[in-house]
Amino acid sequence: MPAPRPLRDIAVVAFAQTDHLRTTDELSEVEMLMPVLHEVLDRTGLKTSDIGFTCSGSSDYLAGRAFSFTMALDGVGAWPPISESHVEMDGAWALYEAWTKLLTGEADTALVYAYGKSSPGSVRDVLTRQLDPYYVAPLWPDSIALAALQAQALIDAGDTDEPALAAVADRSRASAADNSHAQLRGSVPRGDYAARPLRTGDCPPIGDGAAAVILAAGERARELCERPAWIRGIDHRIEAHGLGVRDLTDSPSSRLAAERAGAFEQPVDTAELHAPFSSQEVVLRKALRLDDSVDVNPSGGPLAANPIMAAGLIRIGEAAARIQRGDSDRALAHATSGPCLQQNLVAVLEGDPR
C-alpha cells in the first residue's frame, strides 16, 4: 500500500548544531542553545518574529528539574507571545509535531530545536527511569547492559559477530573525520568490554549538544533555500514496553514507520540512522532494507556524537544538509528513543530534480 501523500509540501530549509563536547560546565542550556538558534535563523534571513510555530525537545530527567524547557525559551525570545510547544522526547518528535502544524496551514514556517546536557550526571542511571516501573526498573539495568543483551541476541542468531560490530564503529568514526561538530573522530580504540559483547568503542560517547532546524511550506521553502529538503513522508511507531515480549534482533516498528513514510517506494542513496550502539545499526539495516549501495551515517552518526534528546533531530538535519549541498537526492533519516530501539521515527527527504 503506497504511503499517503502529505496535504502540503514541507521542507527542511536550514540546519545548525553545536560542536558536541564531553562537558560544557561553563554553559547553561540557554547559553549552549543561543548560538545555534542565531545560526539557523541567519541561514534563512528570518527573525524570530517571522517564525509561525516553535517546538522543542528535551528531557526534565536529564536536566534534573521540572519544566526545564521553559528556561530554554529565553534563548528563543517568548515576548511578544509566540506559538510554542514542547515534547519530552528527542527533537525528531518535536519536528514531527511542527510538520503536523504546518500541514494544517496554521503556519508557514517553524523553528524546531533540541538540546541535552548529559555530562552533569550518570546517563546510565537516568535512562533506567524509562523502563517498566514494576518489574524492570527496580533491577536498575542500564542502557549499555540492555544494548549488550540485544547485541548478544544478534550474535546468537548469526546476524553479526564482534569483528563486524567493530567494523561498524570504525567506519562511523572514520566518516566523522570530516565532521567538525563530532565529538569523536578518526581512529578510536575498541577499549575494554563495557558489557560483553560490547566494548567501549561500540558505545556512544557521553556529551552535551544542541541542534535546530527550520521548516517551511510550499513556495516559502523555495524562497528561503536554494534546494529545500522536502519531507516526502514521516511516521513513528513503538514496540511493546516489555522487553521480554520483543524480538530484540528485529525492529518491526522501524519497518512499519519506514513503510508508512514511503521509504520502500524508491531506493534511497543516504541513510542517517540513530543507532547509538554498533549492534543497533545491524538491526536497522535489516529492518529498513539498506544494502551496501546506501551511504549510512556519512556524518559519523551517534557513535561519533550522541547528545541525548538532540541526536535524532541531528539525523534529520544531516540528511537534509546533504540534499541541500547536492550530495544526496533521496535520503532516509531515523530517530529512536527508549531501550533497544523501542520507539522509532522515520522520515524520507528528497531534493528537487537536478
Describe the fold and architecture.
With 354 residues, the protein is α/β, with parallel strands linked by helices. The chain is 31% helix and 20% strand. It is built from eleven helices and twelve strands. The strands form two sheets. The protein has a ten-stranded mixed beta sheet with strand order 3-2-4-7-1-8-12-11-9-10. The protein has a two-stranded antiparallel ribbon with strand order 5-6. Strand 9 (270-272), helix 10 and strand 10 (295-296) form a beta-alpha-beta unit. Helix 4 packs across helix 11, helix 6 packs across helix 10 (278-287) and helix 7 (162-175) packs across helix 10. The mean pLDDT is 93.
Quick synopsis:
The chain has 354 residues and is of the alpha/beta class. Helix content is 31%, strand content 20%.
Strand order, main sheet: write it out: 3-2-4-7-1-8-12-11-9-10
Compute the number of strand runs: 12
Q: Oligomeric status of the shown chains? A: single chain
Q: What proportion strand?
A: 15-25%
Order of helices and strands: EHEHHEHEHHHEEEHEHEHEHEE
Distance between the termini: 28 Å
Low-confidence stretches: none
- Based on helices, strands and strand pairing, what is the structural class? alpha/beta
Rg, Å, rounded: 19 Å
Number of helical segments? Answer: 11
pLDDT averaged residue by residue: 93
What is the percent of helical residues?
Answer: 25-40%
Shape: globular
Q: Main sheet, how many strands, which sense, barrel?
A: 10 strands, mixed
Key structural traits:
alpha/beta, 354 residues, 31% helix, two-stranded antiparallel sheet, ten-stranded mixed sheet
